[in-house]
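<context>
A single protein, sequence plus fold
<entry> Chain with its tokenised backbone below
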Amino acid sequence: MNRRTTAVLFLIACALASTRASSAQESGSRVVELYTNAPNASVYIDDALAGRASQRYFAVARDSETIRLVVGGRENWSVPPVSAQLPEASQSDTVSIRVNFPYRYRFESKPFGARVLSGAEEVLMGLTPFETMTDVPLSGPVT
């Protein structure tokens, strides 16, 4: 993408954000800008379905308290929802919030008892079978 196209897309995004913010102010609501590692998750604001996380911007009542993300689909049945408290209403019409699902990993081997090593330094993570949850994805080699 060239610079001109990037600049035009940026200006369109800014115009949309300001339009949403001004309409939110008129209606007694505010805009929540959502960042997440699960763009296909369903978003609930105070238990009411608001849309998909890929929308990124949500007009919500100023007194809304929680945001909850739920990953759907049969393959994700064991992924519990994540939620966060929305920042208290302020003079700002737009608030940004990050709600990420933890990264879950399971390591198995036959026979069991193999060492699971992470990174070039080969830091011992555990012995198989082994499960772990992290806030950031694993990077580098896992042996």
In short: The longest helix spans residues 3-26.
